[in-house]
Amino acid sequence: MNTDNSPENPHTMLRPAIALPFLLTALIWGSTWYVITGQIGDVPASWSITYRFALATPAMFAVALVMGRSLNIGRAGHLLAVFIGLTQFCLNFNFVYRAELHLTSGVVAVMFGLLMVPNVLFGRLILKQPVTARFLVGSAVAIAGIAMLLLHEARLSPLGGSVGTGILLAVGGILAASIANVVQANDTGRALPMVSLLAWSMLYGTIIDFGLAWATAGPPIFPDRWEYWAGAAWLGLAGSVVTFPLYYTIVRKIGAGRAAYNAVLVIIVAMLISTVVEGYQWSWLSAGGGVLALAGMVLALRARKT
Question: How many whole angstroms from its chain centre is CA 289?
């Protein structure tokens, strides 16, 4: 028998305790794609990423302590945290920030909607999780839609005609994030408090980010614009510390499958912001691509209940 909090109960999503965190997470994550564009102009991307997680890391440790989660994750946990720090909080974000030098933020957000595809494929390879035919069909539809969006982007070439470079960078970010997503779901990761694992992963990621930034961009650069630091604080605190605990609480209450629909709402928010603020120019090609991409993602998500 289903209870009110059961992931299978269709009315659970309508409860304020679920709906409000769901919407808040989507609004915040949807906004972060545009905020990133203000972090990659006068400051090297690697340093902006370092500042973001230098702000987020102590706050995430504080959240773990407030929630009463143990920070003792053991040797295996620290090794996993180092790997997640490298893939999720270093490689993923370095690829993403650089991708937005070549593509509008909304298009990069749409591309990241395909994160579920490598998630499932890596899950099949690493965790032996099944893949359904419906998921493959939905993914194919979503990929076709995103291809239409990218074709539209290439025709406009708003950032100097380097759309191909942006695509490759975005794909690199997707693969890095996907590897981190799947690996944290192994036996070691599932045995650890998520907030504690995230805190240590952010710490190790920040250390790696610092080394990469110094090696590739030289000594730190500290801009004097308050807008830059407000953006860094929003990305680090709201975009990381607030949203991750909210999102994983949603996952526990309604299940990972239905929680994944949050990604579709994030894309809609990101594209609306890109349209209003960045002046994204829609056409029949891009509109059709957007509809196909979202429809394919919904079809693919509905194919998996776990």
Answer: 21
Q: Mean pLDDT of successive 10-residue segments in the chain (306 residues)?
A: 44 71 89 92 92 95 93 95 95 94 85 78 73 80 83 66 84 90 81 91 97 96 92 93 81 64 82 85 84 82 59
68 within 8 A of 196, measured Cβ to Cβ? no
Indicate the pTM of the whole model. Answer: 0.82
Query: 236, 28 in Cβ contact below 8 A?
Result: no
Phi/psi of residue 32, nearest 5 degrees: -65, -30
User: In terms of C-beta density within 10 A (0-12 exposed, 13-18 middle, 19 or more buried), how is residue 251 classed?
Assistant: middle
